[in-house]
Amino acid sequence: MKLKKMGIALLAAGLMASSVPAMADLVFPALSYRTGPFGANGAENADGYLDYFALLNERDGGIGGIKIQTPECETEYKPEKGVECYESTKGSGALLYQPLSTGITYQLIPKVTADKIPMLTPGYGRTSSANGKVFEYVFNFPANYWDGASVGVKYILDQEKGDLKGKKITLLYHNSAYGKEPIRTLEELSKKHGYTLKTIPVDSPGQEQKSQWLEIRRDKPDYVLMWGWGVMNQVAIGEAAKMGFPMDHFIGIWWAGSENDVKPAGEGANGYKALTFHGVGKDFPIFKDIETHLVAKGKATNGGKNIGTALYNRGLYFAMLAAEAAATAQKIHNTKDLTGAQMRDGLEALKLDKARLEALGLPNFAPEVTISCENHGGSGLVAVQQWDAKAGAWKLVSDFMPSDREIIDPLIKADSEAFAAENKITPRECK
Amino acid sequence: MSPELLNVLEVMLNGLLAGVMYSLVALGFVLIYKASGIFNYAQGVMALFAALTLVGFQTGQIPFAHVINTMFGTHVETWGPGVPTFLAIILTIGVMVLFAYLVERVVLKHMVNQAPIILFMTTIGLAYFMEGFGDLMWGADIKTMDVGLPSGASTWFETTTASWAAEGSNYPGMYVDMLDVSAAGIAILLVVVLTLFSQYTKTGRALRAVADDHQAALTVGISLRTIWVIVWSIAGCVALVAGIMWGAKSGVQFSLSLIALKALPVLILGGFTSIPGAIVGGLIIGVGEKLFEYSIGGMLGGATENWFAYGLALFFLMFRPQGLFGERIIERV
Predict the structure, then answer these.
(1) How far apart are alpha carbons A352 and A320 in whole angstroms?
(2) What is the ipTM of this complex?
(3) Residues of A (284-323) whose Cβ lies below 8 Å from B
(4) Residue A218 distance to chain B (closest CA, Å)
(5) A265-308 pLDDT tens trace
């Protein structure tokens, strides 16, 4: 009996030792989703995220000589699972959360604020969390949905030689809080530029969109913008291609810009465009390091099969932002081991210039990033990528363009102040 | 004709074709419910699993490659270029028959004489198991479904209908997707084959006998368990057809299992026990939701199709609880 108890105790200790990171490690829990309706997208992003940290461990011995742990937790893209993952990993010395879901983000905002663990939601989440005075532990740089909407219109404006009067733009959106995010910005921009905006919702998951596309076919808009996710994207791109809508006038948000979205439509998807806040493809020196230190040693996540896809690159970029912030925090606080609050300071002092991106093996991969106490949203620079069906690859077809701050900043201010009033938060002073 | 009238006709036509796609899913539910009284929650996942298996055979994917690679540190993905589509379909049908056999052997055999709610819960478990099993077997990445069916707008139809419009109206012609037309043709063929099978074959007659009265069928020597294997096999084949059609629209991915949600209002409306009911129900739901979205949807902010389909089904339920073509529920005390 004693032996049995001892055996159980040893087994439990062994399991704990294998699942809980050593206290001295830098812990970046990976809240990912590899199963369910959105698993295909989640897996690619997670692979990039994990591979970057694995590369730092293999090549550099971690960050500042401290090894990195990335305990992965499956959220299935469900808010309740995301919260479970947060609760089960936060005690492991977690330094930063990137939940990869707007729904989970909303659930975690009060929790991370109370626990003083920063959360980074690049290109998703609550847009007004760009206001660091109100959202002390939430960041959403380098770009948010309102930046996306604004740059989408700016790009169209450039295509139309600066005049959108009399033009028709249709927004096809996922009928959820996420899909409705750009509406207000697009409405404000329509007043400024004189285009007619029509919004068409698609109920989740979006497998049947005949009504919506027949309506678009009748309306003949000049451009269609799309805020979609998952199967909605594939069906929309497929319907547009079948109906002969000019694909180069069809622009998706960055969550409608992966290989998964265009490949099911085959050749028909050629010319489709999507917004992005980072580079595309594998033509960057870092991929040689990934090949040498991970793929060749059999250490790449998922056997490296997703390397270079749009979402893999995004996951890689997300991890790079986190790692750079951690390195910054180590310098500021002159310590190798970090706390959540120190990590927050690192994020607020983050500065990624061209030289640093080049040193990281990612020259011109993304625009420069400068974060501060009040600005948690970054520069909001966004580019446009286009799908080349023959080559089976995305290519950038524009520079990284700034969003219309005149429109967006007042919207962020109004929304964040409303949040502060609702939650009795006194905005902090930023020096 | 005025372009407005032609627009209405176009919406109705596309509604009918969308309805056929819903019917393809509903048919599988009806077949199993009719023969065994089980509402098979796993029907949507069966469509997904069948589609994943078909693409797996077509592309030469090694089943459980991810598991093999993790366990043995290998990097295997495919065993070759894959097999031709026709052979892949045959092999997939084989897998679905094997699946039906296993369901009967491992699950249903132990559930005989259980309450309908227990059987329903069993199929929920089966659905989640199959989804996870499908993920392990074929991976979660999105796959392209191509079985050579025509797809895209019919230019002939566009040109013809454009000539119906008044001169100078600049009407572009009606849009119809050839994939939807193919689906309609296949659905008609499927119903004819199923009807002939149930009317003119010994097994078909046995199926009908079981559907009418389990006890009486047993007394004349019909094996209930064999019938269950047959009916789940047929439902698996119907699921394969639905998986091919829906997979061709959106790619084969795990949200494919959610197409079951589109079949529920069709079943409520058409009845759980009628094959013609599944078809007519699908057509009514398809046309109804598309016309409602076209005429009133805009005033309500759009995206009315999902809730309208259920609203319409509920309306019918009030007057005919058994559905339009379902068997009347008579319980004598």
Answers:
(1) 10
(2) 0.90
(3) 298, 302-303, 305
(4) 8
(5) 999 999 999 999 999 999 999 999 999 999 999 899 988 989 99
